[in-house]
Amino acid sequence: MSGNVLRLACTAAVAAQIALVPPAAPPAAAEPAPGTRSVAGLLTDLQRLYREAEKATEAYNATEEELSKRRAQAERLDAALARTRLSLHERRQAAGLLARRQYQSRTDLSPYLRLLLARDPQHALDQGQVIGRLARERAEAVARLTGSERRAGELARRARKALDDRLALAERRKRERDEVRRRLREVERLLASLSSRQLAGLAELERRGTARAQERFLASGVLGDDAKPSAAGETAVRFAVEQIGKPYVWGAEGPGAYDCSGLTSRAWARAGTAIPRTSQEQWARLERIDLGELRPGDLIVYFPEATHVALYLGDGMVVQAPRPGARVKVSPIAANPVLGAVRPDPGGEPVRRYTPPRLPAGASEGSDEGHAAGYAPAAPETSIR
To answer: How many angstroms separate the Cα of 73 from the Cα of each of 67, 79, 80, 160?
Structure first.
């Protein structure tokens, strides 16, 4: 095993509480070597890199979700266009048949003149009704044909635009995917440059920082007594707990790996409630609640940009997929700077009895920030169609 891999393997529990460390200053032109930087400075660099990677990941997820919607829209348009073109073909045939009948019934005298010259008045009236009916049928056939042609043209235009939009989104997704990979390579390079002593210092700084942040958060009184979850919330919690130990992989939403919003969206999908895919959309579109009203199953959103999310477990703890290199785990609610909370099922009635799920051994072990080794590969890419 190479020296870099050995050093990376030592980092499975390395992270720190982001709120306790000031934002990193922009790197200077001549950045000092890793060996000359303080542990706090290294931690700040790691925090900055991870936040940038997570922002890029959520942007990628949002584009991927929009691309899926556009694919579905394009498929619906293509199907509608095919049906309209078939109808147009049938109506053209009907219009052609009317035209041939009219041509075959032509004489030197117009139908109207023959009507005037008829000897039998009743026969004349009958003939007039036939002429009127044929005229109406011809007018209706022309109108239907014109409408079908107009609709087919509009659907074809929309289908072409949908394809163009899909291709543009696919290109944007590729750029965002490349940006995520670039950010993660920066993290890997920094981790590989650290000594065992520096890594141990980072782990200790994380442990103390997270403990202090959680103590302050609980002492503030912002959390009330946990309410009982709804039936759907209980299902989401139990599903999330079952995922503990699975790796974080950016862009993944199960079943073998997850990113932060992939875990929360999949947990609530299992509970029968569809919620947005990304943490930003979960924060923007779900109903916000006070932290004092939390109940298991609610979502805790982190950072001013809403770039991280976890599922509330109860008693001031959450289930989350922390960062690349980490695994789904139980963490203190204050392991990251809390932005607020949202509830996917605001109308859900609390269950009468609730027994929290039993946590597996080691559920809280590992880094809350995911400064760890062994980056799992990205989620399999969907084809660009």
So the answer is: 10, 10, 11, 12
| pLDDT of the residue at 384 | 36
Count Cβ atoms within 10 A of the Cβ of residue 341 and give its class: 0-12 exposed, 13-18 middle, 19 or more buried: buried
Q: 210 and 21 in contact (C-beta within 8 Å)?
A: no
The answer on pLDDT for 368 being more than 50 is yes
Residue 152 inside a domain? The answer is: yes
Whole-number percent of the chain with pLDDT over 90? 35
Residue 176 inside a domain? The answer is yes
Show the beta-strand stretches assigned E in 282-354.
287-289, 299-302, 308-314, 317-320, 329-332, 338-343
Whether 245 and 323 share a structural domain: yes
Contact predicate 329/365, CB 8 Å = yes
The torsion region of residue 314 among left (phi > 0), alpha (psi -120 to 50) and beta comes to left
Q: How many residues does the chain have?
A: 385
Residue tagged 């940038």 (tokens):
52
Note the Cα 305 to chain centre separation in Å: 16
Whether 11 is in a domain gets the answer no
Q: What CATH number did the domain enclosing 280 receive?
A: 3.90.1720.10
What contacts 74, CB < 8 A, 6 or more positions away?
Answer: 159, 162, 163, 166
Q: Which of 158, 180, 202 is the last residue of a domain?
A: 180
Which tokens is 267 given? 């947990």
Helices 231-242, 260-270: crossing angle, 10 deg rounding: 130
CA dist 116 and 82 (Å) reads 48
Q: What is the reported pTM?
A: 0.62
Position 309 in a domain: yes
In the chain, where does DSSP find H-type helix? 3-9, 39-104, 111-117, 121-192, 196-219, 231-242, 260-270, 279-285
